[in-house]
Amino acid sequence: MGNDINNLIDRLVEEHQGVEPEPNPLVKMLPLLVGVVGYMASVVVLIGLRSDWQAMITASATYQIELLLSLLVGVSGMLAAGWLRIPYTKNQRWIVSAALLCGAAFVGFELFRLLSEGVSLASVSAFVSCYLHSLYLATLPTVALVMTQRSGSTTHPYLSALMGVFAIAGFAWIGLRLTCEVNLAGHNAIVQLSPFILLGMVLGISAKRLYRW
Fold first, then answer.
1. Within a 10 A sphere around the Cβ of 206, how many other Cβ atoms?
2. How far is the C-alpha of 151 from the C-alpha of 43, rounded, in Å?
3. pTM check: above 0.85
């Protein structure tokens, strides 16, 4: 019996393969964050900046607040997506809470715009062009983010999907507001938000399959 146990222990030691612990989420997410921002900036340049972008940035408080809130949503969503990759990561709860707060602030601001400005849409051509811009901006970053999230072991698939949408939508919204010249609240909310609502629905429906261990 003693020899059998010793042989079993020796065999287990020989077959043992060390497992490297997950690095800090920033190690995974910062390169992705830089890559996503760089990609979207390149797409914006290729599409072309709106003719009045400088005047809007310097003179329109609404435009400035939108860009700031969308930046906060993108950054906080990306960080939360990284922290959710690893179960029970330190500070996970408050980072996710910060992302949810930023998302709520952005949605609240857009609802305020809709109530104060009314729902009005631009021409069909502007609708189509802005919608296409959202696809150019968001498609590849979404794939890259989902693959990064899948490399972890999240215990919150639906929340991970939501944070992924926050991350992509936040940065893509900035790109859209820099390329699409329409400033109507209804157009901005419906045309520029609807692709990301659809993205959220798709990721939400398939979250358990996408983010399973």
1. 13
2. 27
3. no
